[in-house]
Amino acid sequence: MNTPDEAERAAGHRIRVDVETAFVAEQSDPVKTRYVFSYTITIRNEGSTPARLLTRHWIITDANGKVREVRGDGVLGEQPYLKPGQGFRYSSAAMIETPVGVMQGSYQMIAEDGHSFDAPIAPFRLAMPGVLH
Fold first, then answer.
1. Could you tell me the sign of the dihedral formed by the alpha carbons of 85, 114, 121, 24, in that order?
2. Is residue 64 part of a domain?
């Protein structure tokens, strides 16, 4: 059970992550089992405490069950600082060996009050058009 301080801190540290994906046909080559997907991420601070994104952790899984983990500092070379109500949007890409896959992960954040926390990124699908019904 959370103490009042923990509950208050959790309410202050709320980061929302929304994702849009697209298949990138011109960079993909099914013959060479190369499927490229772009994704656009919108990160929004819905809490009451400013926070900075320090690092990212991605888990990328293709339809064959092959898992690749990616860790790194910031996003696109930046470590965005988000005040309450502020957002940050960026686009990137991932390549997998099958026409369908899943990505998920988290951003490691530090709040202005000094507390570190993870902002989860819910699983989202990478799918070539027409593959799934």
1. positive
2. yes
Nearest CA to 113 among 56, 57, 47? 47
pLDDT digits (tens, 9 = 90+) for 85-111: 999 999 999 999 999 999 999 999 999
Are the CB atoms for 43 and 98 separated by under 8 Å? no
Evaluated on CA atoms 41, 18, 94, 109, the torsion sign reads: positive
Q: How many domains does the chain have?
A: 1
**Is the torsion defined by CA of 45, 86, 42, 107 positive or negative?**
negative
**Calpha distance 10→4 (Å, rounded):** 10
pTM beyond 0.70, yes or no: yes
